[in-house]
């Protein structure tokens, strides 16, 4: 059996390595085509381009592994079946499950490695790749002066030439606008010829100008005149030869701080994604609760300045706030202690969380409402209170703390205050104008809150689907093997012809379902968990079906297999018609 296992693994690993490298190369080319325009004319060098392609190659490995497993398994078991080796092995009493077991174990280990790669290596590679890509995008194209066109690639200068000779050095009729002072086109240099060349490793550009003029427009203020009466002064300097030196530092490839890109979901592992999901979920709950407060504060007459959010939303907010504080406290405690008491700290966290859930006191909603009533009575009409009233209220603070005021009484107090606005008819227009302004502010506040919550929701769903994709892409290696190995044993065709065609067909299904899941998850149509596993959920039953048919040596791809079923249907139909005629 060990020789058989070695034979299967040797037959599988060779095609797998080749197809994996080819798949990575093809996916890399397709991916790099999106950024092809960003490389043209940048003169970034082969080293930088090779580094970028290396990072993007790691990015494409999780998608290339399933395709490589599918093609190699089809080729391996198709070749064994084509050369009747599979038939000979089965004839010796070894089942198909035992035959595919060595390669299956290899694929399971490969899936574990793919998960580690997707969780640890790919985020780091993405961070460096996209930061390097950003630097390339920000890099200016190489110096390219074109005849009859203004060139603004050199900072604070605009250059136009009439003719550029084939040697790349000599230029005829050049105009240079100097914007270093930042006051418009008030400094102009015109020359009838120029020689241009770089030096010090292309760090600087030197222009030798011949037979030209230097025009300067300056502001001159005469004594006793105001600034608006300033008279411009024009200065013209004629020269036979002038040397200009420009720094080409802006054409260099700069290194951007990678931490600026670290917040993107593609640069995070599962731990970081989980923390981001928890944080965004907390922010979404806070935003929903604040909407009720912002709306109710503008309707004091009808809502008494308080609109109670749903109890489940408030309880969720209380739970998340308490859990956040608990985790923060535990994190600070664990930094001062050794790792050996980590389990005790986790037990403490679970205990605190259970105490939060089992709180037998008043609900969060009732406490919030009472706190709002007290704060409203303490702060109402503070600007018009006299010292005597403030003193009286201070003396009665304990009374207010223990006083229970119903919602109807609070609304009555607010109505009495607002009714005073209608005592004078001349204030009606002012009140109506204020009401229109408040309505517009409320609408603007609600729109901004809705947009913010939509943005948080999209970001939340994107992080969720990205988290579960790391598991799903690793498991897809096993799914593709369950499709490829039995299918190769059924079709009994090795080589690159039929396996490549079948592999492309199934991989297109896998790729389309994965892309659809991403879009549906980001739009909120499907939960991120289901979206990430949708492709595996569709293809896994197909693999099980092929495995079942391969164990029975079914000829599902032979015409005779379907002819038998067609003949059975014809016989059944003939028998039925004959029965009808006899009756």
Q: Describe it for me?
A:
- The protein is an alpha+beta fold and 583 residues long.
- It has four domains: 2-138 and 465-552, no CATH class; 150-251, no CATH class; 268-423; 558-583.
- The protein contains 16 helices and six strands.
- It has helices at residues 2-32, 46-82, 85-91, 96-138, 270-296, 300-303, 311-334, 342-357, 364-379, 387-395, 397-402, 407-419, 428-491, 497-522, 528-551, 559-582; strands at residues 150-151, 157-164, 170-178, 187-199, 204-220, 231-247.
- A six-stranded antiparallel beta sheet has the order 1-2-3-4-5-6, with no helix packed on it.
- A hairpin with an 8-residue loop joins strand 3 (170-178) and strand 4.
- Helix 7 (311-334) packs antiparallel against helix 8 (342-357).
- The protein is extended, with a radius of gyration of 38 Å.
Q: What is the strand tally?
A: 6
Please count the helical segments: 16
Strand order of the largest sheet: 1-2-3-4-5-6
Give me the secondary-structure category: alpha+beta
Give the total of domains: 4
Rounded radius of gyration (Å): 38 Å
Low-confidence stretches: 342-346, 352-365, 380-385, 399-405
Mean pLDDT: 77
Helical percentage: 55-70%
Q: Output the helix-strand order.
A: HHHHEEEEEEHHHHHHHHHHHH
Question: What is the terminal separation in angstroms?
Answer: 63 Å
Shape: extended
Beta-strand percent range: 5-15%
The biggest sheet amounts to:
6 strands, antiparallel
Protein name: Lipopolysaccharide export system permease protein
Subcellular location: Cell membrane
InterPro entries: LptG/LptF_permease
Biased composition (Basic and acidic residues): 376-389
């Amino acid at each position: 059996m060990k020789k058989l296992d070695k034979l299967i693994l040797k037959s599988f690993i060779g095609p797998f390595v080749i197809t994996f490298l080819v798949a990575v190369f093809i996916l890399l080319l397709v991916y790099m085509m999106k950024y092809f325009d960003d490389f043209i004319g940048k003169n970034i060098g082969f080293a930088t381009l090779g580094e970028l392609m290396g990072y993007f190659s790691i990015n494409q490995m999780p998608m290339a592994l399933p395709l490589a497993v599918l093609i190699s398994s089809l080729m391996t078991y198709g070749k064994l079946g084509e050369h009747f080796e599979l038939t000979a092995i089965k004839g010796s009493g070894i089942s198909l499950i035992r035959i595919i077991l060595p390669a299956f174990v290899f694929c399971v280990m490969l899936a574990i490695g793919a998960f580690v790669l997707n969780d640890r290596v790919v985020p780091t590679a993405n961070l460096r790749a996209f930061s390097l890509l950003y630097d390339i995008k920000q890099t200016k194209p190489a110096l390219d002066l074109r005849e009859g066109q203004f060139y603004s690639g050199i900072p604070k200068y605009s250059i136009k030439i009439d003719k550029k000779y084939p040697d790349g050095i000599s230029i005829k009729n050049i105009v240079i606008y100097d914007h270093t002072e930042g006051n418009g086109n008030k400094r102009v240099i015109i020359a009838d010829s120029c020689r241009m060349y770089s030096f010090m490793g292309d760090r600087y550009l030197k222009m030798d100008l011949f037979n030209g003029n230097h025009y300067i427009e300056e502001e001159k203020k005469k004594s006793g005149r105001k600034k608006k009466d300033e008279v411009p002064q024009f200065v013209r300097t004629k020269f036979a030869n002038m040397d200009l030196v420009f720094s080409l530092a802006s054409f260099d490839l700069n290194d951007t701080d990678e931490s600026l890109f670290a917040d993107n979901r593609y640069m995070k592992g599962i731990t970081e994604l989980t923390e981001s999901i928890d944080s965004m979920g907390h922010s979404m709950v806070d935003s929903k609760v604040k909407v009720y407060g912002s709306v109710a504060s503008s309707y004091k007459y009808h809502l008494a300045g308080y609109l109670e959010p749903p109890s489940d939303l408030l309880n969720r907010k209380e739970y998340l706030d308490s859990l956040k504080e608990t985790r923060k406290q535990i994190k600070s405690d664990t930094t001062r202690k050794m790792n050996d008491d980590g389990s005790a700290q986790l037990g403490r966290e679970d205990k605190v969380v259970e105490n939060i859930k089992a709180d037998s006191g008043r609900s969060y909603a009732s406490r919030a409402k009472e706190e709002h009533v007290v704060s409203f009575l303490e702060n109402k009409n503070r600007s018009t209170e006299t010292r005597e009233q403030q003193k009286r209220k201070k003396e009665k603070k304990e009374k207010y703390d223990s006083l229970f005021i119903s919602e109807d009484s609070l609304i009555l107090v607010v109505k009495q205050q607002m009714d005073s606005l209608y005592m004078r008819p001349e204030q009606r227009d002012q009140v109506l104008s204020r009401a229109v302004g408040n309505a517009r502010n409320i609408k603007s506040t609600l729109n901004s809150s809705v947009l913010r919550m939509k943005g948080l929701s999209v970001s939340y769903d994107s992080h969720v689907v990205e988290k579960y994709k790391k598991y799903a892409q690793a498991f897809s290696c096993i799914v593709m093997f369950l499709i490829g190995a039995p299918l190769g044993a059924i079709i009994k065709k090795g080589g690159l012809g039929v396996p490549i065609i079948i592999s492309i067909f199934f991989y297109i299904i896998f790729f389309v379902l994965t892309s659809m899941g991403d879009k549906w998850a980001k739009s909120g149509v499907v939960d991120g968990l289901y979206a990430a596993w949708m492709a595996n959920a569709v293809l896994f039953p197909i693999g099980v079906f092929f495995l079942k048919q391969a164990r029975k040596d079914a000829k599902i791809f032979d015409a005779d297999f379907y002819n038998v079923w067609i003949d059975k249907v014809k016989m059944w139909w003939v028998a039925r018609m004959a029965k009808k005629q006899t009756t």
